[in-house]
Amino acid sequence: MAKGLDVGTMNLLSAKQDGEDTLFVQQRNSFVEIDYSDMAEQMLSRSDVLHIRKDDRVYVVGDDALTFANVFNRETRRPMHHGILSSSERSAIPMIKLITEQVVGEPAKPGEKLYFSSPADPIDSELSTLYHEKTVQSFLGDLGYSPEPINEAMAVIYSELADNDFTGLGISFGAGMTNVCLAYYAVPVMTFSVARGGDWIDEQAAQATGTPVDKVTSIKEEGFELDFRTDIGGVEGALAIYYENLLDYVIEHISREVNDEDVEEGLEVPVVVTGGTSSPRGFDVLFEDHLEKASIPFSISHVERAREPLYSVASGALVAARSDEEQMGEYESVGEEEEPEAEAPSND
Questions:
Q1: pLDDT mean over 174-198
Q2: Tens digit of pLDDT for each residue in 211-250?
Q3: Is 17 part of a structural domain of the chain?
Q4: Buried/exposed 123-147: b ≥16 CB within 10 Å, e otherwise
Q5: Residue 49 pLDDT more than 80?
Q6: What is the mean pLDDT of the chain?
Q7: How far apart are CA 90 and CA 122, in angstroms?
Q8: What is the pLDDT of residues 292-342, one digit of tens each?
Q9: Which terminus of the chain, N or C, has fewer Cβ atoms within 10 Å?
Q10: What is the pLDDT at residue 69?
Q11: Of the candidates 164, 159, 155, 154, which has an alpha carbon nearest to the alpha carbon of residue 185?
């Protein structure tokens, strides 16, 4: 048994194989703080709302956090910011540990292989992902897993481009970052991230329209489409503007990094986009339109959206974990020495 884990700024998702099906467990990576009372804690427990109590405060965690934030007119808090553990959130580590435990559960056996997504260092920021990666790896190990990090965009290629020999450009538009990987036969040629994603879009749209960020997020997640027929002036119009700006920003950095890496001209690859930020209808069409106008030294055969954008990173991490587990099994089988057959006792 093996598992994959997408450690996202907005959501945490795990994936494991169950026969021919893949089972996913998801929780929103956020929490909200409310005042403690005996009645409140009893109601939360009876309703199976994920929460923890600390002193005179109660923290509602996961999917229910956004609902409680809207009811109590409060902002949700995040254990992660810009794709990594938040340095300004004092409760970041205990909260993400709690959410992770709910998502991955206990290992099926000690040392079960688990691959978890980790972003590349952003090229437009001084942020480092090392502390985040090692911290997540540590508490997954404490749970009894044998955890290994996998580049988030490389996980997209494992998930979506098996039919193309794991060759192509994978782009994960997450909440905190956008991760990019160009791979050739499963070998990464170029990996990087930019410190902009869905959160940046929400924050800019909220600032432009004077709307709370959580409200903007809810609007974006409730049927928002990139059809550009929305009147400018409202939240959806602002979202469309900043979506287009994000795509241009990502494409600009792809073009720059490809030139720096001296990628072979004449290469023709597919592009697959994924992540919660890529979910609005029309996203892939808009991205392909902007990509065609860019100056990139290789050809794009087509742009496609991941089959299930929210789950593709976790799926790719699972593919890597299962492959690793199978290779280890084969190695151990080859390394085992056969026991010599016992000779029959001699009558001499």
A1: 93
A2: 988 889 889 988 899 876 666 778 999 999 999 999 999 9
A3: yes
A4: eeeebebeebbebbbebbeebebbb
A5: no
A6: 87
A7: 23
A8: 888 887 788 999 999 888 899 999 999 999 998 888 765 555 555 554 454
A9: C
A10: 79
A11: 164
Domain assignment present for residue 288? The answer is: yes
pTM of the model: 0.84
Kindly state whether residues 14 and 150 are assigned to the same domain: yes
- CA 288 to CA 198: how far, in whole Å? 19
3-state secondary structure of 273: strand
Please report which confidence band the pLDDT of residue 149 belongs to, taking 50, 70 and 90 as the band edges.
very high
The tokens 């036969």 sit on which residue? 185
Could you give phi then psi for residue 300, rounded to 5 degrees? -105, 115
Is residue 72 domain-resident?
Answer: no
Torsion-angle region of 55 (φ positive above 0: left; ψ -120 to 50: alpha; else: beta): left
Domain of residue 319, residue span: 2-29+78-323
Q: DSSP letters of 16-39?
A: EEETTEEEEEEEES-EEEEE--HH
* Rounded Cα gap, residues 125 and 49, in angstroms: 37
Distance of CA 321 to CAs 40, 61, 179, 240, Å?
Answer: 41, 28, 20, 37
Burial class, 40, CB count within 10 angstroms (exposed 0-12 / middle 13-18 / buried 19+): middle
